[in-house]
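Request: Mind sharing a record?
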Amino acid sequence: MHPEFPLSPDILYLNHAAVAPWPRRTVAAVARFAQENGTRGAADYARWIRTETRLRGRLAELIKAPSPADVALVKNTSEGLSVIAYGIDWKPGDNVVGIAQEFPSNRIVWESLGTQGVAYRWLDLYASSQPEADLMDLCDERTRLIALSSVQYARGLRLDLERLGDFCRSRDILFCVDAIQGLGVVPFDLKRAKADFVVADGHKWMLGPEGVALLYVDPRLRPELRLHQYGWHMVEHRGDYERLEWSPAADARRFECGSPNMLGVHALDASLSLLLETGIDRIRAAVAERAQRLIELIDGHGFELLSPRDPERRAGILTFRVPGADHQTLHQALTGSGVICARRGGGIRFSPHFYTPHSVLEHAVRITAGTAASRSARK
């Protein structure tokens, strides 16, 4: 067992693609913050701001952004995507290209633009053997933006961001990446991906809390995005409360209208300290090793793998079907047996992290096989 993850012995945790457990240091950071707030109020707020600044730096390091000032802290991925979608100056007849099997956050927001005459064109990922090429084929002279997840949430397909980013730059198409299923386990490089926008919640592979998310907007585009949220925090001269003239901050703070989630800031800062100390390359290798072991176990029990077999096409998500099983019933039974997982993409989704013991993988698959067999025998 990893010392940072003293998980209860009655569960097998394979659900990092949904909500991750906090590391021990994150639990301690939240407890300290709560105790300090309860005994000293905001007496040490200046130090809290330093923690917030450090978090921006860690997030910038995670995506290889030029500066911490390029990182906005928003509540969640949906808010970040909405800032982007409703900041662009659309024209009737424009279109957005995406994927049908996206998580609703990265589909509904683009579909909602139909009221402005903007079409959402989607690729059926499950019917595509060459998704990057097929996404490009959906584009035309009115395509303003490609919006997609770096790693698909249901079956875990990892897309070639560099290829798509090169295409977007060559066609003057904006490129928006929802990185929630990749950041923390897959290295990300803004220069290589050529992403204009990056969004990601902290509560999955980054091992942080819900309520804090990264929003990156390319500096050249920041002044062009129309703002719809205003407040004291997003102005250039923040803290000068009696100043009557104001303008939006030049850096990414312009997208943060009000007070930050300081509790979440302290938690995510602690979680990212563990990831960056461990090293994203080491984490990627450890997760890849666990994914490969899961594939061996899935194959060995005769299950049907729905996730990619190619290591370059996956991150930490392994989804599979059990032949003849009702997967809703199977998922309920697994949860009742302490196997914490999800039902996604037509099957059962396991998502281990770098610290997950191999014994957890093996035990979880054995329970899955036994549960499916016992239910089949009762039919």
